[in-house]
Amino acid sequence: MATQNQDRLRSHFASLDQTASAQAGGWDSLWETATFLPWDRGAANPALIDLLAHPSSPPTSPDANPTPGAPPPGPAPAVDLPRAVQDGKRRKALVPGCGKGYDVALFAAYGYDAVGLEVSAHAGRAAEEYLKNAGRGLEGEYEGRDGGEGKGKAVCVVGDFFEDAWLKEVGVGPEGGFDVIYDNTFLCALPPSLRPAWARRISQLLAKDGKLICLEFPTHKPATSGGPPFSLPPTVHVELLKRPGEEISYNEGGVVVATDRSPGEGALVRVAHYTPQRTHDVAVIKGVVRDCVSVWQHA
């Protein structure tokens, strides 16, 4: 059942075209007034906090996740994240749709030069203000995490994820420029028609030895309820990333159909998939964590 916030958010976007530019205007108007920001939880997702703190053994939920395509309970595989500093050079992390920049501050605390991207100029300004003094966070997650290498930079730029202009601001080329990309509530905010373009762009921006971290949310929401946020069970990522840029199939209920298509050009493969021990409360349904974390790399 949709919540009052979900209904209000869906109504806000219902009258807009399903183009990237029209959707961008919809988000910017919300950030301009800043009186209705239901996606802003005030902190980085605990699942990301735990993954960065314990990449060799990310904490997992002991409960079975009933979402179709969710991994069974059990230990998560070790996640081999790129070192934040390699040969004296800082690696770059990208957080598209970063909001106020909680995740950007977190990656910077671990030594990465972290870049947040926002299509909304008002959101970008909010992130700039937050990143000036991110503080300790709720769990001290922004301090003492760099292994002695020192914090990386934390910046937010305003631009269109699907265009190249913003890349020049952060000194990155249009292909293979980011060592870590984190998608939390970005893909689920896009109209489904833009999903293939998201996958193609992610594949282009991810470095050859980079890792894509996806917080799969909302997995429990029926596809028929629309969005944003749009239903995002694990099958969506699997189908999109095996052939980035290609259309995927949906059944009559709007649910993504799993296929046996072979990987195509630019394919990403899933190297870890688990239900995290913790996440934001919105994704804990009747005491059970419904989010999933997936980690990807180039095939």
Automatic annotation (TrEMBL):
Coiled coil feature spans: none
InterPro entries hit by this protein: SAM-dependent_MTases_sf, TPMT
MF (Gene Ontology): S-adenosylmethionine-dependent methyltransferase activity
Domain of life: Eukaryota
Keywords, ordered alphabetically: Methyltransferase, Phosphoprotein, S-adenosyl-L-methionine, Transferase
Pfam families: TPMT
GO terms of biological process kind: methylation
Region (Disordered): 51-81
Protein name listed in UniProt: S-adenosyl-L-methionine-dependent methyltransferase
